[in-house]
Write a structure and sequence with these properties.
Helix content is 27%, strand content 24%. It has helices spanning 2-15, 57-62, 75-82, 141-161, 179-182, 254-262, 264-270, 273-278, and strands at residues 33-40, 48-56, 68-73, 92-99, 117-122, 168-172, 187-188, 192-193, 198-199, 208-214, 231-238, 243-247. A hairpin with a 7-residue loop joins strand 1 and strand 2. 43% of the residues are buried.
Length: 279
Amino acid sequence: MLIKTKHLLTTLVVAGITAFATQASATTYVAGDLLLSFRASGGFNSDKNLVVNLGQADTVYRSAGGNLANIVDIGTLLTSTYGANWNTRADLFWGIAGVAQTDQFATPIDGDPTRTNYLSRQQTSYNPGTKTSTAWSVSGSTSRANIANNITTFAGNFDAFSAAVTDTAVLDATAGGSWNSFNTGSTTFGGVSGTIEGNFASGTGATALDLYRILNSNSGASPTGTVGTGSWEGTFTINNAGQVGFAVTAVPEPSRALLAGLGLAGIAFRRRRTVKKTA
């Protein structure tokens, strides 16, 4: 493990990525995974970011055929990181971002052309499974490239210091390349004017995040859309126990609820692109 850690830190330095002073371990992160992140603007552990891997944006969430219950259960982690009152803290924020590739000449993956960004936005009225927020509009390929590059930098830091067993990491929020460094509350990832975060001021039952897919090109896109304007893919929720869900319809489908109850939805969420290609 020591040899692996030394090699990892050397790689980070060469790549210009900040080395966080936290645990280093193997991880199952794959480019294109959605990363759920928490930050506190003040108070207890405001210097910590809790980051959670939610799985592939395109094959799991863009292609979701129904609601997904209990994707991850992070209640214990939230309590240990931000306190037992995390679910009512007005200074605690959560947001989601992901991108698969940044090379402008790369070929599309699973219908997502390069620099297809996935970003969250808090619902204006709580109604999981129905879009209530305004779709993101990111004009200009330069802004979309900046977002993709910065998400990739952040994901690289998570990948380096996450735990494979839980796909989570508690990172230094004050370091370069942290969630805090890319989410100021007024700008996000160097290309979004506004915030992709929600907060817990009114409790978990009042905060939900709509997920948007933002195309940089329609070349090879499936489905296609308006370049630069986000298409709504569904809504992320979190309850007081720290269980994260995803809704694409206002009323859960019985078949999907049954699968979730049997634990099969969790298995589907863990599916990786590498598995898909060899199937």
